[in-house]
Amino acid sequence: MALYLILFIGFYLMWSSMILIALSLFRMKLLQYLLPIAFSALVLSTVSVTIHYFHIKYLLTILQPVVLIFCFLAIIRFRTLYGVFLSAIVYYIGMVGEIFFNMLLSIFGRKAFIADLYSTPYVMLFAIVIFNYLVFIIINKCRIGFSFIASNDSEPINKSFRKKIIIALIFAYIIMSCTSYSFYWNRDLFFILISIIFIIFFVILELSYRKEIADMESSDLLIEELHR
Questions:
Q1: Closest CA to 158 of 81, 90, 225
Q2: How many CB atoms lie within 10 A of CB 66?
């Protein structure tokens, strides 16, 4: 029972840190989201511990993203496309962060240490939490991110951007949903999917960058028109 309590605390800190990273990356005012973030992390942590308790880890990347989307739409209350988009960002940040963390340890010859971490999952959880909060601090200190998402934005979404991001998100969730299953049943496929995850993650960031630049150019043109 104590193990599951520790796991719950670890998952709670992990999910809250991942949501904080995503909202910071899109320059949200975090203070107004503290309560929704806390409640969302509570829901997600409960689901994560339940998955571990019933030993259905092969469903990890199927169930968690669905619950995450629910949290962004029903609890944090973003528009549907942006809610799904942010959910993908959150989950991909978690996956890429864990992969990057393992790669760093492997480079420095700590493969045995990685094996020990996976044998005690709560240790790995807290290591990821520390890594996530470091990323969160860097994003805020360096002011890295985008500003085209708003939870109450009523303006229509650009059709070209909508089409591209929907295609990217469909691929993202298909690949994501296959990773935990392939990890347990087909390791070769798992490593191929991980490579695709990196590519899709950077495609999503590239689309975000292009959207940000387009919005900035539109704002500049509007300002010029107003000063004429």
A1: 81
A2: 13
Q: Two tokens at 87?
A: 């959910």
Chain segment 94-147, per-residue pLDDT in tens: 777 777 666 666 665 555 555 555 556 667 778 788 888 888 898 888 888 777
Please give the model's pTM, rounded to 2 decimal places: 0.81
Compute the distance between CA of residue 76 and CA of residue 47 in angstroms, rounded to an integer: 18
Residues 6+ apart with CB under 8 A from 166: 81
Identity of residue 173: Y
DSSP 143-174: T-------TT--SPPPHHHHHHHHHHHHHHHH
User: Cα–Cα–Cα angle for 137, 32, 132, nearest 5°?
Assistant: 25
